[in-house]
Amino acid sequence: MTEFTFKAYSKTGDLVIDRISASDQAEALSLLAARGLAAFEVKAGQQTAAGRRTRLPSRALGVFCRQMATMLESDLPIDEALALIARDADPKAAGLAKQMHTAMLQGATASAALAAATPHVPEFMVGLVAAGETGGTLAEVFERLADSFEGQARIAETLLSALLYPAVLGVTAIGSLILVLTVVAPALAPVFAGAGDRTPIAAQLLMAASNGLRDYWGVIVLVILLAALVAVMGLRSPGGRAAMSRFLLKAPLVGPVVANTEGSRVLHSLAALLDNGVNLTAALEIARGATSNGTVAADIDRITSEVRQGERLSEALARSTVFPPSAGQMAAVGEKSGGVEKLLRHCARGMEEGAQRHVRRLMSVATPALTIFLGVLVGGIVLSLLSAIMSVNDLALSGTP
User: pLDDT tens digits for 31-58?
Assistant: First the structure.
C-alpha cells in the first residue's frame, strides 16, 4: 500500500487536505469518490511531483475547455463529450480527453481525472472543475476557463509575433558577423601582414576579432553554455525564482503586463470558485494556483491568512502590493451589496484589458528599439569592413618605401 496526500472538496464545499492509503492512484481516487470527496490533487511521494513538472500549453487547454463547454451546454454527457474530444485534431487536447475518459470510466470524478493527467493542468483549473461538479455548473466553469486560457494564448502570440522580425534580424546580424570574421577577414590577412605599424586601427581590431574567434571558438562556446547552465540552475533555485518574480513585477514596461496578467487570473479563478459556492478561504487557497509568480503567490498567502483570522477580503486586498487599489475597492462594494464575485470578475476583466494595453505599448516601444539596436550593430560591422578594405587600398597605393 502507498500513502497518498490529497486535496479535495467535500459535498458542502469545504476544502479537505489529508492522507489516504491505496495500492495506486486510481484506487485512491475511487476511495475518495466513495467518501463523497471531489479530489483535485493526489500525490504519492517525490515521484508524482517530479512527473508533474510539464504543463499543457494555454492554447491546448483553451481548445479543450471551449469544446467541453460547447458540448456540456448542449446537454451531452461528460463521458461522451470526452470521447468526442479524444478524436480531435489537436493532439494535446485529445490526449487530455483520453486520459480523463479512461479515469472516469474507472470511477474517478472529472476533477480527479484532471488532477491525475500528465502533462498536468494548472491547479486552479482542477479546483474550478471540482467546484463546478459540486455546484452543477461544469459548462459555465469550462466556458470561463476557455476565456481565460484563450486570453493567455492571445497575449503570448502577440508577443511572439511582435518579436519575430527582431529575432530574424538578430540571427542575420550574428550570421553576418561570423561570416565577416571567419571568411572575409582571413582573406585580407596577407595584405596586412607586411604593413607592420602602418596597419589602420580598424583593420587591427577586425583581424584581432577574427583570430580570437577562429582560435578560441571552442572556449567561447563552452563559456556561453556554462553561463546558460548557471542561469538555469539559478532560476530553478528558490532564491533565484523569488528574485526573478520580484524583478518581473518591477521591471519597466514588462512589470505592468505581468502584474495585470497574474492578477486577472487569480481574480477570475476566485470569482468562479465563489460563484460555485466554495467558501472564501478555500477559494483563496485554490486561486493561488492560478499564478506562476512567487511574489503574487506570497501575497495571496498573506491575504488568505488575514481572511482566516477574521479580516474582510477588501481590507486584505487594499494592503496588497500586487493587486491594484481598485481590487480592494471593488471587493468592498461587493461585500456591501452581496455580489463580491461579480465585482471581482469585473475587476479581473479590467486588469486583463490593462495587460493587453500594456502589451501593445510594450511592442510599440520594443520593436523599433530592437530594430534600431540591431541596425546599428550591423551598420557597425559593415563600416568596420569598409574601413578595412579602404585601408587595404591606401596601403596598395602608397607602396613600400
Answer: 777 777 777 777 764 333 333 446 788 8
Helices (H), 106-194: 110-115, 123-135, 138-179, 185-193
* Separation between Cα atoms, residue 320 and residue 327, nearest integer Å: 9
For a pLDDT cut of 70, what percent of the chain falls above it? 87
Mean pLDDT (the chain, rounded): 80
In single-letter form, the type of residue at position 245 comes to: S
For 296, residues 6+ apart whose C-beta sits below 8 A from its C-beta are 245, 249, 259, 262, 263, 266, 322
Q: Nearest 10 degrees: CA dihedral of 239, 243, 246, 247?
A: -170
Residues 366, 162 contacting (CB under 8 angstroms) = yes
CA-based nearest residue to 104, from 132, 73, 83: 83
- Quick check: 87 and 76 in contact, CB under 8 A? no
Q: For 278-337, how does the pLDDT look when each residue is reduced to its tens digit (9 = 90+)?
A: 788 888 888 887 788 889 989 999 999 999 898 999 999 999 988 989 899 999 998 888
Closest among 264, 390, 396, 233 to 327, alpha carbons compared: 264
Q: Which residues of 162-194 are buried (b: 16+ CB within 10 A; e: fewer)?
A: beeebeebbeebeeebeebbeeebeebeebbee
- Residues 6 or more apart whose CB falls under 8 angstroms from that of 80 comprise 71
Name, in order, each residue with C-beta under 8 angstroms of 41's C-beta and a sequence gap of 6 or more.
6, 7, 8, 115, 123, 126
262 burial level (CB within 10 Å; 0-12, 13-18, 19+): buried
* Residue 174, all three cell numbers: 550574428
φ and ψ of 17, to 5 deg: -120, 115
What is the CB-side half-sphere exposure of residue 76 using CA atoms within 13 A?
16
Please give the Cα distance from 271 to 273 (Å, whole number): 5
Question: Cα–Cα distance between 55 and 400 in angstroms, integer?
Answer: 69
Whole-prediction pTM: 0.69
CA distance 261 to 354: 9
Confidence of residue 226 (pLDDT cuts 50, 70, 90): very high
Under 8 Å CB-to-CB from 197, ≥6 apart: which residues?
none
